[in-house]
Amino acid sequence: MTDPISANAHGRGPRLLLTALSLLGGLALAGCSGQVPWSTDGPSAASSWAAFVQTAKDGGASEAQLAALSDGKVTFAEYEDAVNLALDCLRTAGIDVIGGDVVNTRGFPEIDYSYAANAPGLSVEQTDVISQACLAQNSQFVETSYQLDTSGRR
């Protein structure tokens, strides 16, 4: 039996959770001004965003995920497509997905999901490797951009 309780909220595994915490720490250091961890204005905006996209490439992001990042803004439709691809990947691997519904608890639409910490026939470690690969390839960077860049949504 899978243990959905030990999976992190919203499907984020330990590595993605650390990434998110690092990014949120950067936001706190920026005075919680709602800024994203890349520059959105001025001459450094393009190079800052390019560095974020390069991180996505280096992190194994799919062509679909990179296309969603290509214009510097992630729409809800792009975010939804990316998350659904990640959830499909998890399900195909035999990992139970909990939720997947659109919610609006933080003032903008987002998909609330989590996934099981282990899958039948796989160890917790194997399940984590597969789940992290599904997220990195399909949605991790799009989710980060969508959830942190609130400009135009609020």
Describe this structure in words.
- The protein is mainly alpha-helical.
- It is built from six helices and two strands, in the order H-H-H-H-E-E-H-H.
- The protein has a domain at 62-154.
- It has a two-stranded antiparallel ribbon.
- Helix 4 packs antiparallel against helix 5 and helix 4 (76-92) runs antiparallel to helix 6.
How many strand elements?
Answer: 2
Q: What structural class do you assign from the helix and strand content?
A: mainly alpha
The major beta sheet can be summarized as: 2 strands, antiparallel
The low-confidence runs, each spanning 5 or more residues with pLDDT under 50, are 1-35
The global form is globular
Beta-strand fraction estimate: 5-15%
N-end to C-end Cα span: 41 Å
- The radius of gyration over CA amounts to 16 Å
Q: Strands across the major sheet, in which order?
A: 1-2
Give me the number of helical elements.
6
Order of helices and strands: HHHHEEHH
Overall mean pLDDT stands at 78
Helix content: 40-55%
Secondary structure topology:
Layout (H helix, E strand, L loop, with lengths): L13 H16 L15 H14 L4 H7 L6 H17 L4 E7 L6 E6 L8 H15 L1 H9 L6
Antiparallel strand pairs: 1-2
Helix pairs in contact: 4-5, 4-6
Any key phrases for this structure?
6 helices, disordered N terminus, globular, 154 residues, mainly alpha
Gist of the model:
The protein is built from six helices and two strands.
